[in-house]
Design brief:
heterodimer, A: mainly alpha, MetI-like fold, disordered N terminus, B: alpha/beta, D-Maltodextrin-Binding Protein, domain 2, 2 domains, 5-stranded mixed sheet, 3-stranded antiparallel sheet, globular
Chain lengths: 295, 375
């Protein structure tokens, strides 16, 4: 891992190549795998349903249309109109967009704060020793307990939701970036010292580039966490327009319209995945070779 | 390469800042300055549903505005305690059940009930008819579902009245019931708590797994806490505010007007059940029409008729609620000064002068056909 930063700092630009047949084939294989896994999961779900209903097994729970609806009924539910006209999927996509905005602000805030914190900590062992335990402790407090307090401080509204999302975001960024900032080669440090480089120069020319792969692994964790944080944060903030409101509502009516809650979860998962993919794409632009692709 | 990450970081900051600005701007545009309207916030007990139809109607029909008020209806939820929101100053008014107000007062939260909108309890306990559990006394030794956190005293009182001690596991197994009816529908519990206006309908909107038809009222025993045979109903949705807000003379007109317009909303919902249901649905887009129509009708039954006029109940009813609350540990002492209907009476007088029927003595519920899934 230590090599990554070193290489990133000193390697020049690699020329972009045209798509090779091998690459096309690899992409097709990858797409095929995704479809295959999805089909297998679908099959497993339906098989489980079929066997449990046929045998009337009640462990761990009795299976019926309420406890485990057909996958196709979940997708069907998305195409049903709500009482006010628009399809459920339209309603949910609006809710997802609303939540996405809160999560994005929270993610940005958390990433910036988390990164700044790591930079501060890497330059002071004292600060590190004094603050790190509290940074870790902050994450042991359940977000459910933090969220209502944030709402009392900031009043209810999307700002509180963004802060709650940021609270879940900053921690992985701080911890991983701190590790990343310390990961550059001793040889590289010595080289820069021989040039009498300032702390600032060392930070920008060596430490930060070396931390990039670490930062991006953290951002991937944080991206999905920020969506979860936003959804949880909406509940104490009296916000009905996002996915949190939709989940609360459909949860209440789960016994009569179970597929609606599953459909909402599907959209919430899709939003989290979108955030994750966005970070992966950003990583591709910034870090030429992500560690997991190097195998 | 070097510039890439700097650019990416800068982009991140810019995006965050732009979004924050966009949010701020859209907020500013969404709330243009009203001329001379007094802004107040009402904290609801739960999310948008017909339980709060009167307030939504008062907004939609302009009753608040006509009396110089700009009312923000703040949604409730699982992590929101209306008493706390009002005490922390985030809302002037709140809706909650009366026993919770007593409990908050006892802990030092200076809030006062200024109108009792629901004058009877909507709490029931359900059993399946084929179980043979056709009276509360037969629940001895059974698994009885109860909601936690201040919602259990009515049933505990009913059990106690029938010689069953809810605190003794040899008498009865009390099951902490989640806020949906799955345990009951799957027959994992023998009896379940249900509000007439919500969970009862959810049972009826579900198909029976064996017959494939919707569950019928005739399949159920419904023990209504408010009925004379059970007789342990407590007062539920009331409007409250802080003592500080109430006793500031400059707020007297605002409070009176708020109550008057809210009452008007409830009167409108009494006389226009279908229209009021649409108003609620417009405020909560994914709600089922059938379920909300049922709820609207059942809520009307809890509000009307009221021989004192909407918002006012007899001291005996308040005392009965207080007594049950004390008996089952919601409060340690009987409350004093927790209820004052002076401003509600002023609001009622204004409405009566305008020729509005505030009693609903001729109120008749409509008949609602249950729809599968409450669609």
């Amino acid at each position: 891992m230590a090599q990554a930063g070193h290489a990133a700092a000193f390697r020049g630009r690699t020329p972009t190549r045209a798509l090779q047949p091998a690459q096309v084939r690899a992409a097709a294989v990858r797409a095929g795998t995704v479809v295959g896994v999805l089909l297998a999961l679908w099959g497993l779900w339906e098989l489980y349903r079929y066997v449990w209903i046929r045998e009337a097994w009640t462990w761990p729970f009795p299976v019926n249309d309420t406890t485990l609806p057909h996958i196709h009924s979940i997708f069907q539910a998305l195409g049903q109109p709500t009482s006010q006209g628009p399809l459920l999927i339209t309603f949910l996509l609006h809710a997802a967009w609303f939540t996405a905005k809160e999560a994005l602000v929270g993610f940005g805030l958390g990433a910036v704060v988390g990164f700044a914190l790591a930079v501060a900590l890497v330059h002071s062992r004292l600060a590190q020793r004094a603050l790190l335990p509290y940074i870790v402790a902050s994450q042991t407090i359940p977000i459910l307990a933090v969220a209502p307090m944030v709402v009392v401080w900031l009043k209810s509204g999307w700002q509180s939701v963004a802060v709650i999302a940021a609270y879940l975001t900053f921690f992985p960024v701080t911890i991983n970036t701190l590790r990343g900032l310390q990961s550059a080669d001793t040889a590289a440090h010595e080289l820069l010292r021989s040039y009498a480089a300032s702390r600032w120069k060392v930070l920008w020319k060596l430490r930060v580039p070396a931390s990039m792969p670490y930062l991006f692994s953290a951002l991937k964790v944080s991206a999905t966490a920020s969506v979860v944080g936003a959804i949880i944060g909406e509940l104490p903030s009296s916000i009905q327009g996002g996915l949190g409101g939709a989940i609360l509502n459909f949860n209440q009516y789960y016994s009569i319209t179970p597929a609606d809650l599953w459909a909402t979860n599907l959209i919430a998962a899709a939003l989290g995945i979108t955030f994750f993919v966005a970070v992966v794409l950003a990583e591709k632009l910034v870090v030429r070779r992500a560690p997991e692709q190097r195998a | 390469m070097k510039r890439n990450y700097v650019l990416a970081l800068a982009a991140l900051v810019v995006v965050a800042a732009a979004l924050a600005a966009a949010f701020g701007m859209s907020r500013a545009q969404a709330a243009p300055k009203q001329q001379k309207l007094t802004k107040v916030t009402l904290q609801l007990k739960w999310v948008t549903q017909a339980q709060f139809a009167g307030y939504y109607a008062a907004v939609a029909k302009g009753y608040y505005k006509n009396l110089g008020l700009d009312v923000n209806l703040k949604l409730g939820g699982p992590d929101i305690t209306p008493e706390q929101t009002v005490l922390s100053g985030q809302a002037e008014f709140g809706i909650d059940w009366l026993p919770n107000l007593f409990a908050t007062r006892e802990k030092g939260g200076k809030i006062v009930s200024i109108a009792q909108v629901f004058n009877k309890s909507g709490m029931t306990e359900l059993t399946w008819k084929d179980s043979g559990l056709n009276s509360i006394s037969k629940l001895r030794g059974k698994k009885v579902g109860v909601w936690c956190c201040g919602n259990q005293p009515e049933l505990f009182a009913a059990l106690n009245k029938n010689g069953i001690n809810p605190a003794k596991s040899s008498d009865v197994t009390i099951v902490n019931q989640p806020f949906d009816m799955n345990l009951f529908l799957q027959k994992k519990i023998d009896a379940a708590a249900a509000m007439t206006y919500n969970e009862l309908a959810q049972v009826l909107e579900t198909k029976n797994a064996t017959t494939g038809k919707l569950n019928q009222l005739s399949d159920l025993n419904v023990f209504k806490m408010a009925s004379p045979s059970v007789g342990t109903g407590m007062l539920e949705d009331n409007i409250f505010t802080t003592e500080k807000y109430l006793h500031d003379p400059s707020h007297a007109t605002t409070i009176k007007n708020f109550l008057q317009a809210s009452f008007q909303g409830w009167i409108y919902c009494r006389d226009h059940v279908a229209d009021c249901t649409s108003i609620v649905l417009k405020n909560g887009t994914a709600l089922g029409h059938g379920h909300q129509l049922w709820q609207m009708n059942e809520i009307n039954k809890l509000v009307w008729p009221n021989s004192f006029g909407i918002g006012h109940v007899s001291p005996a009813q308040v005392a009965s609620t207080a007594k049950i609350a004390k008996t089952y540990g919601v409060t340690k002492k009987l409350p004093t000064g927790a209820v004052t209907y002076t401003l509600a009476d002023q609001a009622l007088n204004s409405l009566k002068k305008a020729g509005v029927d505030v009693y609903g003595s001729k109120y008749k519920p409509i008949k609602v056909t249950v729809t599968a899934g409450g669609k």
